[in-house]
Amino acid sequence: MKNTGKELEERIKELTCLYEVSSIIGNTEVSQLHESFNAIALSLKKGFQYPDQTEIAIETPICSVEAKQINDTFQLTSEIQVFNEQKGCIIAYLNGETSFLIEEKQLLDNVALKIGNLLERIEIQQNEASLKRQMERVDRLGILGEITAGIAHELNTPLANILGFAELLKDEFHEDKHILQDLDKIIENAIFSREVVKKLMFFACEMPQEMQMVNLVPSIKNSLSLLDASFKKAGVKYIVKLDDDKLILRADTIQLTQIIFNLIINAIYFSPKDGLVTIEASQTKNHIILKISDEGPGLSEEALEKVFQPFFTTKPTGDGSGLGLSVVHGIISSHKGLIAVENNKSKGATFTVTLPKS
Ligand code: ADP
């Protein structure tokens, strides 16, 4: 009779623990995961036959609770499964004469199952949030693309007029040095604005595309010879690593050069003196891969997230418009390719472009 009473007491403790764990888990947000795990560990400890001699550890990739002091004679482990993969475990340590009860193993398994469900819920929430952010970005880029295309069209004609009339005035005032200097400034600024408009049109994918089979290698070599002076001026070196002399893909040659150009110009800009820019090109069965890395400061968290958004720039005013990489992104998307950026382990950043061969 006495034993039955004790057993009953144990079952009540276990059920209380399960109830507590369920309500802790039901109310848990990602930000409070640590507090929740601590509360679960405490509740589990109380649910065991000898709470004073029992310690609980919970190990998962995103949050862990260590056992207070491990001086155990017995150990019990339950795996935590997240989407059918083992993602950690709960370990109960007991320092006592008799081992764990079968019911205690069941309790631990039950709690491990509940923690697994919680981690699945968190993973789904995080995926949803990241998907939402991506959709918002695509939406924003789409709307901005339309607006920019409109602005670019509107500006093209007046800019052409400014340039044309300034040239005419130059003929008319060819004897007045002062006026000629002012006119040159007008022309210079109009040309700069025309370049910005061109970039805007690239960004909005408004430039006509001429797709043909091209070899990436000469495009890289041409870009490098055009940028040779920029490398020298900045005191930056470069190295080219090519998998093959022929890296053929279906693309618009001018836009391909635009990608290479923009990425290398940024790499030079952010490189320290004597820094090395590495240009690598390789191929897989269906893709051509271009990697451009530098030894600069790399990108901040914010920059990593916003780098392809139009008008995002960390360069001082006058140095950058924040359009280069959104143009690159636009071109790559229209080629059904991908671009990614990551910071290197040691220093600098690497931009990886993957383009389909056909
Ligand atoms: P811009 O060069 O006019 O600023 P981009 O779109 O080319 O516009 O680049 C946007 C921003 O991305 C830069 O201002 C900089 O913050 C970041 N960035 C681009 N390339 C690199 C690089 N190689 N290293 C570090 N930051 C970079």
List the helices and strands and how they pair.
Blueprint: H1 2-26, H2 33-47, E1 54-59, E2 64-65, E3 74-82, E4 85-94, H3 102-172, H4 177-203, E5 211-215, H5 216-234, E6 237-242, E7 248-252, H6 253-270, E8 276-283, E9 287-293, H7 301-306, H8 324-334, E10 338-343, E11 349-356
This protein binds adenosine-5'-diphosphate (ADP).
Number of strands: 11
Q: Counting H and I runs of at least 4 residues, what is the number of helices?
A: 8
> Helix and strand string, N-terminal first?
HHEEEEHHEHEEHEEHHEE
Detail the poorly predicted runs: none
Task: Work out the count of structural domains.
Answer: 2
Helix content: 40-55%
Largest sheet: 5 strands, mixed
Q: Which molecules are bound besides the chains?
A: adenosine-5'-diphosphate
- The CATH H-level homologous superfamily of the largest domain: Histidine kinase-like ATPase, C-terminal domain
